[in-house]
Amino acid sequence: MDEARGARRVVRVEILRSEPGKRTTFEVERFDPMTVLDVLLAVQRQHDPSLGFRYSCRVGMCNVCGVRVDGEPMLACRVPLDAAREVLRIEPIEGLPVARDLVVVLDQFVDPWAGEESSKQ
User: Fold this and answer.
1) Tens digit of pLDDT for each residue in 32-57?
2) Per CATH, is 3-114 categorized as 3.10.20.30?
3) Which runs of consecutive H residues, i.e. helices, occur in the chain?
4) CA-CA-CA-CA torsion for 76, 58, 66, 49, nearest 10 degrees?
């Protein structure tokens, strides 16, 4: 059955979870255009509401939706899914502490002067 006849188009999504070494796989129905953030929202809404990830502006300005897709760091809101893409591996940004699932601790970027007073004493 082809797309013109109503074939269900899906992308398989493998997400690294908070529990060390735990990966969860989901199938998400595709639509066009679709971003990695759209995939994460679909997983959370349709499969697992406990999935943790961040987003805010949806236009690549706030930088809180950073994740690794197939090992490459990128902003989930800015990365369109290629029409032929069938599998997606999503992990938290490397080098930052993980709070939960894809949520990393951004304190050092939010208030870079927070530790300044204590370091002067």
Assistant:
1) 999 999 999 999 999 999 999 999 99
2) yes
3) 36-46, 107-110, 116-120
4) -70
